[in-house]
User: Fold this.
Amino acid sequence: MEYEFVEVGPCPACGAPGDYKYKLKWPGELERDVLVTVSFQCPVCGYTINSEKILIPLKALYLMRNMLLPRLRPVVEKMYLASKLSLEKP
Assistant:
């Protein structure tokens, strides 16, 4: 499963609004980690964020889902439920 989102947020340097691009990738089945990347480029001052690929355990991401952006919560819940169902296969 792979999901990409764009959210508007303030630039950390100048406060101007800009687009934060989030990408979550979960290989599925028995994988326990989710690959998260974040990128941002301010249209005003040019400040750039290009996060490295961050591996976050799926269970930890699920436990903090209420602190995430509202659009990401159902995605994380879907990944978590899919992982639980794959573990219960006979």
The longest strand covers residues 2-10.
